[in-house]
Fold these 2 entries.
Entry 1:
Amino acid sequence: MDTDSTAVADSADENTPAGAAPVAARASATGSDVVIETRNLSKIYKDFWGRKKVHALKSLDIEVRKGEIFGLLGPNGSGKSTTIKLILGLLFPTSGRVLVFDKDATETKKNEQIGYLPEESYLYQFLNAEETLDFYGRLFDMSGRQRKQRVEELLTLVGLQGARHRQLREYSKGMRRRVGLAQALINDPDLILLDEPTTGLDPIGIREMKDLILALRDQGKTILLCSHQLGDVQDVCDRVAILHQGELKELGRVTDLLKVQDVTEVHASGLSEEAKNEIREVIARHGADLKSMDNPTATMEDLFLNIVRESEARPGARRVSATASDEPAADASAAEGSQAGSDNS
Amino acid sequence: MNLQPDDFWTFSEWLFRPGAFLESAFLQGVVLIVLAIVLGLLVGYVISAARYGPGEGFYAVARAIRDLLRTDLPGTSPSRIVALARLAFKEAIRRRVLFVVGLFVVILLLAGWFLNPESDDPARLYISFVLTATNYLVLALALFISAFSLPQDIENRTIYTIVTKPVRATEIVLGRMLGFVAVGTVMLIPMGLASYIFVDRGLDHTHYGVVEANEIDGRIVGKTDRVRKHEHTFTIEAGETQGLTNFVRGHRHVVTRNDDGSFTIGPPTGQLRARIPSYGEIQFYDRNGDPKESGIDVGAERLAGGYGSAGISRLIGVAKGNRKLEHSYVEGGTLGMAEFTFDNVTRQRFPDKIPFDLSIRAYRSFKGDIESGIRGSLTFKNPDTGFSLTPKQFTVEEYQIDERELPLTFEWLNKETGEVETRNVFDDVVTEDGRMQILLKCLDSSQYLGVTKSGLYLRPAESSFGWNLTKAYGSIWLQMTMIIAFGVMFSTFLSGPVAMVATAVCVLLGFSAESIYDTRHFIDSNIERGGGPIESLVRLVKQDAMTTQLDVEGVANTLIKSADAVIVYTMDAVATALPNLPRMVSTAEYAASGIDIFNAVLARHSVATLGYCLLAFLISYFFLKAREIAA
């Protein structure tokens, strides 16, 4: 689907405007609080002999402000991860500068306020969840009692209390991701960098991750995430920068960027066929072009989440038969209410 | 055991070498650190200049140093180091390195089949075996665990989650080093215990009975049965129920006479020793009785070795030649002798008797009387008054330590009164300031006795074997620490396998340092002895002897020689900069010889280890700091 034709009905939109609008306003109110600033940031990867291999990032200028969720968006190889690594000081810029909390990115001190979830959870496989979090807690010079309390909180937060004594090598990808997130939050950071936060997670995990990101933002934390999952970015980010081939292509508020200026969206329920025809006529009379008028379809995400929520409420096998193929849909609609028959279409 | 001159140095003599400062370890250390700093700055500048341009490169280097001094060193937190050390420890343990301990036990069990307890000196065999096995096993292990860990962390990117925490490069390096040292320590302890038990049990044997016993005036003289190819004779004095056997192969047994007239022979004692020697100064006299610096050289024994003790002064060409101490010989039936002067011979140190040990070699210029060994004599003399006791004659027992003692009283004929007086050694033979001389002569003419400074010593005290073994293990621990430091250092900028090879090369260069010095010595002094690597190869191919002129003409000859000189001089410089591992390994020889490892020797090794670890730490820090972790 491309943006021009999303004129009517998008069920995911409940999240974005509701969450983003007030915080976006807050972000602009404290706009002077720049947490991350890149100035003319460039990175060229060289080989052993110093010959240029890839120009991964070209003169990037972005500012991430306090309290916002900033998304770096782009296809594979566009420079998202490079940017994050430059911000963390894992890479050194070829030219330009990165300032984090007004300090140079290579300074260790800045890390005290930073939490980082790497692309994949690069954790020690031979430790268990509790040991892992305890270890990272020690790296922040936390006291024994503090660590214990924090580890407990985080294990609960990411839902790994049951698996706390299993070595990470036995974990599923999603569980590792959760531990990874927990270690990123161990120091209660002010700035959280998330590299592809939703990869490897199941739809529930994705939703939980998104909710968590929003919750963290509501606690006043600044979040920079990079992703190529457009849905994620759209759902949670206040502002995005779109990178392609190492260059900044677009930068701005998600709501502004996605607003299609000359298309109007109408949601209504209980319209009869006549009423619909009437609306069509009104549109035609005003010389406008009706692009589509249809029953909305829910997203697969909604459907899936509904099914899972319901099954948690009523455990046991769902009756799925070839003859009664509309039954699950009926169940789903019973739970959600308004979106009947979406499964059939 | 033949000690070398530098073995006798005290700690401060080693550190500062009074009178020969160029040879001092202190200077060597300082030069090494200064060189490392200068080279480090230079390399750092070249790298940063390539990265950021010449001007900015300078600032980058300056910033790195400022960071180290202003933030990283003061900001280094012990608890983070401990956390990282614990991680390294757990990593190694969960990789099941403790299997090596199991492997060691298996080696010991197998060795039990092959080590011959019937050999002449079974204690030496057993002790040197366990120590050598431990040494090489632990060094190999240290090499593996230290070189692979950090590169693997970088490859797996687990390091990302570490360096994005407030962790400093200093902490990463120290954490690794300490963690691996802890692993090594945890492994050395069971290995040491197993070694002790193995040696103790391996040497244990039982004589089941007495084959011969004669009672003469209530005094019983007898002979035990033959077990492990040896037997003992024993005496039980009249009225006593217990007696001692003689020393055979370094041990003796207690023999008890039971009420029914049978004998019980106890377990072997005295074979695991840790003698604390007190060495004197040695002075040789030639056949005419004139003082000489050394005795007679009975063979071309002064070839290689001992170069290393000259430190920097050898590298820059001030000190030349080898310094290996070989046995010097005294000719029999002449005025030739070796005079040992001992200090600090006091009543406090020798309250009952003056025990002394002989470790002397014999050189026969003819077969002589095959039945009896070569005879020598010992004369105890007061260096001030010239008063001496009647020379004590002895038969040389080669390749073993001959334990003797001087009673504190002796009978003396007073020529004025004509009476025999019982007098004390401390009154007549020892000077007021506690000096005493022992003169060693050979009694058989045209036969020779060979000694070094360590060939005759007083033995005021004895330490326990267990403690001595612990010290030997301490020395292994120091070597392990050094290798771990080097391994971690190389792993900060090389990939795992390459770092391991680099560390191994350092170890091998350290082990073959003396051969390199030797090669250089012969190149320097224009003596044909095979030359450098290229020349040696040419000789090998042409099947030329080592001592002939190199059979290559003209330009090729010059080319070979100059290329060799460059190679050998470079290797020489590198080997001089590296830790002298063979000297550290040689502490095993002390334990095997039953001599208490000198505390000064251990202190020297400890300081050297600390120095090298510091150096490795600094180099690691800069490499890690300058490294793009994610690149």
Note: Residues 1-31, 323-345 of chain A have pLDDT under 50 and may be disordered.
Entry 2:
Amino acid sequence: MFDDLPISWAEFRRRSGRAPDGHIGIMGEFGAMLECMEPDNIRVRVPFQPEIVGDTAWNVVHSGVLMILLDSLCGISIIQKMTVPTPIATLDLRVDYLRAVPAGEDLFVTANCYKIGRNVAFTRAAIYTDDPEDPAAIANGSFMLGTAGDPPPMATMLKGQNA
Amino acid sequence: MSTQNTALLEAVTGDIEGLFKAIPFANWIGLIATKDSDGVLCRMPFAQRLIGNPNLPALHGGIVATFLEAAALAVVVDAQNNPDARCGKEIPRVISTTVDYLRPAGPKDTFARAEIIRLGTRLATVVSSAWQDDPARPVARANCHFLVASGGKSS
């Protein structure tokens, strides 16, 4: 399903069955590219664009952009690891901003789901630019399982593929 | 790196309505800040691109987090604008944000207010709350820390 990466977010949404009416979501608006989708190793690259600036004098990327990327990747890391497809919803998200992201640099986002319980899943995610050892932001997110709506189609597809 | 954002400062001095227009990403989302008798009220008009889960549909959790953090920023800047305020007067830089998601945020306008827990010479601690239909039934809350002045010792 993801053996020809990198792919655009629109293509990722299409393949994972989450693109009704061509909806690409905020990640698609960011121009995100899915670069790696392996167990314990999900990576997305986000090219810089002027709309994501938070501060024109300091010329740094807005903190909200980082939260959006981190929340998205945390969720995907859970869906990827599900053995029983189920809808999820963010319960809490804590983001630490370790350093500013200068405008103009590509962002890389990684995430890992380290526990899926019966009711709650726990995840970590990080954002860096040129050096994975020098993250700009890190996040811890917990997600409720079995919330309203349908299970993410991707979970069903990956389960079928892995079976 | 300058610790004074003159463009932002000019935009917000005495005019909190101009705050989000001076922040490109807040402007892109469409955030609006107004002042009323209860303080700063923030509004995030619904737009299709803010949807995170098209199945429900529900707003993206990161968008809601961004909105809560922006509302927290707005009350700090508003407090800094008070010439008598004895607090750090640099443009706030966010250190950490923790968001609790309480209810699904549907495809409609969202509102937020924030409350300063403590505003000192270096740090601001703020809680903010977002709702859609009823302020007493928030869809999410956040706790934010901002640096409002650099420390004397360099790291």
Note: The helical segments of chain B are 6-12, 24-29, 61-80.
